[in-house]
Amino acid sequence: MTNFIDFLLGGFSSGAVIALMALALVMVWRSTRMVNFAQVGQAMFTTYIALTVQQSTGNWLLALAVAMVAGLILGIVVFFLVIRPVKNSDTTGAIIATFGVLIALQAGAGMIWGGDPEGFIPPVSNAGLEFAGRIWPVSLYDILVWIVTAALVIGLTLLFTKTSLGLSMRASAFNPEVARLSGVRVNRMLITGWAIAGATGAVGGVLIAPVSTISPNSFDILLVFAFTAAVIGGLDSLIGAVTFGIGTGLVISLVSGYTDASNAPVVALALLALNLLLKPDGVFSHHGSRSV
Amino acid sequence: MLLIENLSVSYGAVQALKDVSLEVPHGHVTAVIGANGAGKSTLMRTLAGLTKPQSGQVTFNGEVISGRKPEDIVRMGIALVPEGRSTIPELTVEDNLKLGGMWRSHAQRNASLSRAYSLFPVLGERKSMRADTLSGGERQQLAIGRALMTGPQVLLLDEPSLGLAPLIVTQILELVARMAWDSGLAVLLVEQNATVALRIARTGVVLNLGEVVKSGPAAEIASDEELRHAYLGY
To answer: Distance from A186 to chain B by nearest Cα, in Å?
Structure first.
């Protein structure tokens, strides 16, 4: 039982990061109805930028802020690179193009920063906290990850539900024609969606880097988990992405704890397959918003 | 005044509008009637900027609007209520309304919102409910309310009667006619239900296979039996 609780607690941090990546995928899906497979590549690239900032200034908050801004910009760049040229002709082409961007980002990062894994020093201790006579699988850094994730999710929720920009973005996602007829510049809203997704992914990257290492391919597995969480959540639901992001983190923590870490991706894909068989619309999706 | 001159639109080989000219003056309802496929919706979508004209032009108070984007046309004061009660079901009633005219000042938007609620009290009662919980008539009121939130000088109404009970249609259209009269709104109403449309309109325009076959005082068109038999099928 102690093991079970430890495994669960240990899963929350990776769950939070998966949730952020899934959120990024969902925001792109909501704005342009496609999956951006370059998302983790963008996060990897901005995490390298954050690493550079941290190594030269030693300021973690500054590194996080720079990564977010870089994420926004990179999101916009990828939008113009991928969506603009192929969007009108076909979505499948654009999705495949995102794979191209992913490979280009990984190659680019390898050329700039080299292919060897590098460590990212956490701003606070990464060692398990001692409490009530034992050491728990939760560190100060884990708590920081939870706080940053919660703040970002709350911020995004407020943005989407309480502001004019959020209303314009939601309307553009639900019904672009009605939005345009109401005076919303829908194209700008789509770009904004990609930009916010880029920044969200960037935060996820900076948060996960200290507990793993960073290399051009180190986030690839994150794509599997985030994609699973986003799809099970319904692809267009922000709540779904967060819920199943954390849920996926817990499941992989349990699987890694009881069996072996290498089984985690297989279990994630099995869950994805099960979901597509039993509830292909996703759990939190609006009915019929996605076809498989 | 909205002025349409020699407007032609085609979808590939199909000529949807041929050389259509008409004017929509302020303070009145102008009704465009005609059977299914006469080009009525194409006319509306072209005026709103959703469809690009092949030739001809549309001017509003002397400024050319044809060929512009829908979001720019609505910002100039021309609002379309598209066919089929175009509300966004996932959003609340109030969010559907607030979507209209987001570029306007806070004060203007608040004034328009209270005006919409006083015109359509039922929307005020249901403002925090999702739009898909509304009845057909309520959703049509919501769609018109959203268009009014943009502060239009010209209101384009595409088949507002579709699928609604006759009594509700009459209520909504009479309200629109009163609004035109009271606030100088120019209304272009497209309808398959010619009887109701011609009753509230000052001018009637009969469209057939993309061409204007007759235009004149609404009462005159309503009483022209030959015209009715030939183009309106009743």
So the answer is: 9
| Long-range contacts from A2-7, C-beta under 8 angstroms, 24+ separation | A3/A257, A3/A258, A4/A254, A6/A136, A6/A137, A6/A257, A7/A137, A7/A253, A7/A254, A7/A256, A7/A257, A7/A258
Average pLDDT for B26-41: 91
CATH number of B2-232: 3.40.50.300
Q: Closest by alpha carbon to A249, among A22, A96, A1?
A: A22
* Total-model pTM: 0.87
Q: Could you list the beta-strand ranges (E) of B12-148.
A: 14-24, 29-33, 55-60, 63-64, 78-81
Interface test with B, best of A182, A239, A287 (most B CBs within 10 A): A182
Q: In terms of Cα–Cα distance, which of A30, A120, A40, A112 is closest to A75?
A: A40
Distance CA B103, CA B75 (A): 8
Nearest to A180 among B70, B88, B149 (CB): B70
Q: Return the H-helix or E-strand segment holding B4.
A: strand B2-11
Q: Which positions 13-42 of A are in contact with B (Cβ < 8 Å)?
A: none
Across B86-113, b (16+ Cβ under 10 Å) vs e yields bbbebbbbbbbbbbbbbbbeeeebeebb
Distance from CA of A175 to the nearest CA of B (A): 7
Instruction: Give the C-alpha separation, B124 to B50, whole Å.
Output: 30
Tell me whether strands B203-208 and B186-191 are parallel, antiparallel or unpaired: unpaired
Question: What tens digit of pLDDT does each residue of A193-251 get?
Answer: 999 999 999 999 999 999 888 999 989 989 999 999 999 988 888 888 999 999 999 99
pLDDT one-digit tens code per residue, A177-189? 999 999 999 999 9
Helix (H, G, I), strand (E, B) or coil at B118: helix
CA A171 to each of CA A81, B85, B102: distance values in angstroms, whole numbers, following the listed order: 25, 15, 12
Query: DSSP assignment, residue A127?
Result: S
Q: Is the pLDDT of residue A279 over 90?
A: no
**ipTM for this prediction:** 0.93
